[in-house]
Amino acid sequence: MRLYIGNLPFAIRTNEFREWLTLAGFTISEVSLVREHRTGKSRGFAFVEIKTHEILDQVRHRLDGKDLLGRRVVVGIAHPRRLRKRTQRNDQEWGAPQRKELLAS
To answer: Other CB atoms closer than 10 Å to residue 5's CB: what's the count?
Structure first.
């Protein structure tokens, strides 16, 4: 089971975030701090893997709205990713070669 934890400070590192969760009294099996592909900077949210529903509910109730380095953390249940249809706009955002560039090669 996964939790979404948002509104994280952009400067936080994975080990600092894991330590904050541990200090709050939780043993977390996996932490995925989401980063920007191009720059490597934090995007301000993470996903946390929790083993049981009981712990999941405890984490949600104890950490939602808590302060972390001056930011109020938001905690919710993570939903599976939806597949997005590939569009020209998506390709432009991620730097994929444009059709004209491919034809010119």
So the answer is: 26
54-81 pLDDT, tens digit each: 888 888 899 999 999 999 999 999 888 7
Q: How many domains does the chain have?
A: 1
Contact (CB, 8 A) for 46 and 10: no
C-alpha distances out from residue 47 to 31, 64, 80, 98, 100, Å: 6, 14, 11, 32, 38
Q: What is the pTM of this model?
A: 0.72
Question: Would strands 67-68 and 2-6 be described as parallel, antiparallel, or unpaired?
Answer: unpaired
Range of the domain at 22: 2-104
**Listed residue (43, 68, 57) closest to 3, CA to CA:** 57
Q: Is 76 left (phi over 0), alpha (psi -120 to 50) or beta?
A: beta
Length of the chain in terms of residues written: 105
**Residue 36 belongs to a domain with what CATH number?**
3.30.70.330
Tell me how far apart the alpha carbons of residues 43 and 54 are, in angstroms, rounded to a whole number.
28
